[in-house]
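Input.
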Amino acid sequence: MTAHTTPARPPDARRRLIRELLLVAGLFAVYKAGRTLSTGRTEEAFRNAARVWDAERALHLPGEGAVQRLLLHSDAVVHTANTYYAAVHFPATALFLIWLYLRRPRHYLWTRRVLAVLTGAALVLHLSFPLAPPRMLGAAHLVDTGQVYGPTVYGAAPATDTMANQFAAMPSLHFGWALMLALGMIAATRSRWRALWLLHPLATLLVVVGTANHYWVDAIVATLLLGAALLLVPRPAAAPPAGPVLRSLPRPRPETARETAPEAAPETATAGAGR
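Output.
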């Protein structure tokens, strides 16, 4: 009588998905709550803003106003930039993680860990170095495009804004996450056009600077933190080939003189006997 074995149940995909959603949501909630701890440090944030502005000029970085003037040539262009800043950041990152989770699980784990390290490092910097964005800095002479042209994700008065900490400009997680999205898609796909994903962080950089929400240095610091996170988190191993691996068979060794000699010997002996 043959014993019937019950096949092992596959992992509960729904349970794993809920766990990942709770984990990502929890990390984001901790980050948002931590950012609010520096909302009351207004004077320090403006002092740091003046230092950053002076440092950029000393380094001869291009003025943020050069990008903003390009946007202000058209109301439609600046409105599009504001919409990109307000509406693309989180949905694009969420869709990116969902796609990796469903199609590239190993890359999803790698990306989630990198983003967690990057976001944690950014939170530490937000708390230790509050920074007013360039739209608030009088010396920058920039327009708060979100308030003037809309839409905006920030309240008109930073002190009473309960939705966001407006003094957490450094680093720019808008740019850091966008850059990781591009690098993650390049690593997880094999299309010859995958380098075009870099257009997303490029567009994000122009938007965050042109809308006067971030300095150039904010994006530079985000890039350095992302680089450190990529060094700390090991990349996923290469996937094994889809089909069976055919091992090459060893070539047959050529017959040597020693191996052929015993076969020739009887013929010689026979010939000698017939003479």
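The two ends are 74 Å apart (CA to CA).
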